[in-house]
Amino acid sequence: MSENALRIALLLGALSVSGPSLGQDAAPMGGRDDAGPGAYASPSAIPQDPNSRDIGMAPSGALRKLEPIQLPERPVGPLGPELDLPNIPGFAAQPAPRLDLSRPTENLRLKATLGKDGPEIPSDLVWRLFSPLPGPDGKLPVIAMAKGGQAVFDVPKGNYLLHVGFGRAGMTKRISFSGKETHETVVVEAGGLRLHANNPNDKTIPPDKLTFEVYSDAKDGSERRLIAADVKPGKVVRLNAGDYQVVSRYGSVNAVARSEIRVESGKITDATLRQRAAEVTMKLVREPGGEALADTAWSVTSDQGDMIRESVGAFASMVLSEGNYILVAKNKDRIFQRQVTVEPGADEEVEVLTSDLLDPNNPEVGTGD
Known about the structure:
Elements: H1 3-16, E1 108-114, E2 125-130, E3 142-147, E4 150-153, E5 158-166, E6 169-177, E7 182-188, E8 190-198, E9 210-216, E10 226-231, E11 236-240, E12 242-250, E13 255-263, E14 268-274, E15 277-285, E16 297-302, E17 307-312, E18 315-321, E19 323-331, E20 334-342, E21 348-353
Parallel strand pairs: 1-7, 8-14, 15-21
Antiparallel strand pairs: 1-4, 2-3, 2-5, 5-6, 8-11, 9-10, 9-12, 12-13, 15-18, 16-17, 16-19, 19-20
């Protein structure tokens, strides 16, 4: 048997020896006796004689229990003399973190002016950057969008199509961005249009009965395009500088006025249209100044017989353009008629009497009583 194998065998044999074989004064490994604290056997207590033939047996001398190691006790009091350290200055206040430290601010910065030499537009702008190449749907994709007086776009370098909207005004321009910090100013040639309407006698028309429509100019025989609808009087409409046609509607029947108006860049244009019309209120009565008869159906035709408007009720009120009209009232299968002339700005209440029969000689027509 080799020397290493012999030593391993001796080691295993020493660990397997029972208590009585260790002698009177020994205790098992890890055990304790009445004499006091003990300790595990040290490897130095294992027989190291390779010439011993009694494999697994303890040497002739009994193994002695090792005394426990005495650890030094922790001293009571300070660990040593006090240290005289120099004063360490406080750290300087650190600056607040900035979000733009990790990347340079190389953006496309845009602003707009009202006219070539006009003031900067501070708000109400809509900025859109389009790709110059159409997408799968045939439209130019929107790359970025912003609102306000100025716009800052963080986009890759390249060519873009810029559209700036200012109300119903706007402009389009090609932009080439190099990827470096770029400031550019665009010019919006726009103005404002504020609309009003009155009668020839300058009588004020109730605003709730007025509306306006703005159409593009018709050049070279092209059709007019509706720019703005249902515009209220006194409201400023932002438009590109140019010529427009304005339509004023008073009421909802046939009182219409038209005018050609030019809008100048950087200015507000006030336009007043003349309405040659009046509001007519109709009622069917048995006598002048009498009470209006209910359940009356009304129809208004021109003096050429063209139907203008129909209505039902004791009172029928509508705005009519100047001219001659025929008022027809039907009540309980009886028909009454009267001719009336509408003067511009002359609002009036028209009474149709039950004696105004459509055909007094017709025996089926009564008096309405």
